[in-house]
Amino acid sequence: MAKVVDDEGKEIEVFTQEELDAQVAALKAQHEAEMKAAKEHQAEKLAEFEKAKAGATAAQKSAEEIANEAKKIAEEAKASIDASKQETLATKKSFWINSVTGGDPELTKKVLENYELLNMPVGTDAEIQARVQKAITATGIGSIANFNQSISYSGAQPANVTPTEKSIKEHNYEVWKNELQIQDLVPKKPNQ
Question: pLDDT of 28-49, one tens digit each?
Fold first, then answer.
């Protein structure tokens, strides 16, 4: 530093040109170092953001893939259920028509033609029975007794037949007679 006398005669210290250039250079270097550190920090934060964004995008894509797969499975299950329901309804229709026609192809064909002409719903067993009954009537067969009987479609279990009280008593009487080896004391009339 140099000492200079000002206009008032006081001695003041002033910087030389070299000292000023050195201070400017030091400040410039400090500023450049701060700017470089700020840019590095900015680049680091941007990289972290991009990484997080890529992770979020991957997670979103994964979630969308899972959702699409679940939707696909649900649609396949619905289609399978619908196909099974249609197959069950077709089996019921075939059963009722075959129970009426006895498997006769000509009669089955006539009943099927009349069945298809009817504009009636066929979503339940009762609706199918009603439609087949109307088709039978239209064919000229008439109606069938006990047409509305309930049927097991499982195929694994036989029909559930409940014996009447009279048939139980008759059966028990016959078993009792056979066990005791008793013959009828009163001969049966020919019409019995």
Answer: 999 999 999 999 999 999 999 9
- Could you tell me if 142 and 128 are in contact, meaning their C-beta atoms sit under 8 angstroms apart? no
| For residues 7-31, average pLDDT | 86
* pTM for this prediction: 0.43
Three-state secondary-structure class, residue 14: strand
Cα(128)–Cα(151) distance, rounded to whole angstroms? 13
Phi, psi of 5, rounded to the nearest 5 degrees: -100, 130
* 181 to 27, 60, 184, 188: CA distances (angstroms): 131, 86, 10, 17
Per-residue pLDDT band for 161 (boundaries 50, 70, 90) equals low
Nearest one of 159, 94, 158, 80 to 125, comparing CA atoms: 94
Q: Say how far residue 19 (Cα) sits from the centre of its chain.
A: 83
Mean pLDDT for 3-30 is 84
Give the sign of the dihedral formed by CA 71, CA 74, CA 80, CA 82: negative
Alpha-carbon distances of 39 from 32, 33, 34, 35, rounded to whole Å = 10, 10, 9, 6
* Pure H helices in the chain: 17-101, 105-117, 125-139, 165-180
Token duo for residue 45:
């934060």
For residue 154, give the H/E element and its range.
none
